[in-house]
Amino acid sequence: MNGESLRDLWLTYQSTVAFIGLNGLLALSVYTTLSCGQLSLAQAGFMALGSYASAILTLHTSAPFPVVLLAGTLVPAVVAIPLGLPVLRLKGVFLAIATIGFGEVVRIFFVNLDFTNGALGLVAIPQRTGLVAIYLALAGALFILWRIRGSRAGYALEAIREDEPAARTMGIHASAYKLSMVVLGAGFAGLAGALDAHFNFIVAPANYSFGRVVDMLVYAVVGGTTVFYGPVVGAAFLTLLPEVLREVGSRVGLQPGPLRLFVNGLVLLLVILFLPNGIVSLPRRVRRWLETRRAAAHAA
User: Fold this and answer.
1) Secondary element (H or E) of residue 32
2) Helix, strand, coil proportions of the chain in percent (round to 5)?
3) Quick one: what percent of the chain has pLDDT higher than 90?
4) What is the pTM of this model?
5) Which residues form the domain of 60?
6) Which CA distances in Å does 94 have to 39, 42, 100, 258, 274?
7) How many domains does the chain have?
8) What tens digit of pLDDT does each residue of 228-256 get?
């Protein structure tokens, strides 16, 4: 393959590489709350806040791009504090419903806001996001979660996830830890939204519907939520898979949209049935199977 062919291939799949990083960051925003046993589905709303805050700052000021990204990160993180204080008293399906409601409130707010052009959204946003910015943000998020994992806070979060009442009896301030992870997840989602807004030129309420947060959750579950990098693996796998199957879909007459939904649903079902700890657990499962086969062969 010559240099021109490689350049054409890179131009074709450059956006896919960018979306892997963005989806990985969004999946990590869901993982932050799952790490302490909470299912928060407010990430689409936080992403919308980050996208709009950064886009407005870019369109109406001459703020440098790092300042724009900081604003897109801080605005949803600050909003998450008053939201998290009452909402985290809920558990299970009630928490999920409440956070879905928050996301829809944010979306409808921007639909009816004339300053942001309502349902049409903001357009002609300068493309300031590059692959370096996306993957630096992803690396930073992974580094933060890696540092938390091996710290006292990480052990406290694991205890809260496994048995919150028992964790409280050991003196762990569960509410503070859960609120911290909600704020961190909101910051990740807002940062992803700011990067996305300056990559796709447009910010519109339709981009932050309930379906968007379902995608984030599927990335995390498919990749695995037992380790901090699992959601990134799931995001990469599910972002690349439709591209791989696109040619197959065209041959059998399936449109890319329905094919993607079908494949995502099928993969999620198979992972839940056979790999409950996600794709990241597959190598360990294979090693155990091989060890069992060797032990059986030696016994025979």
Assistant:
1) helix 3-34
2) 80, 0, 20
3) 51
4) 0.91
5) 3-299
6) 10, 13, 10, 30, 28
7) 1
8) 999 999 999 998 887 777 766 666 666 66
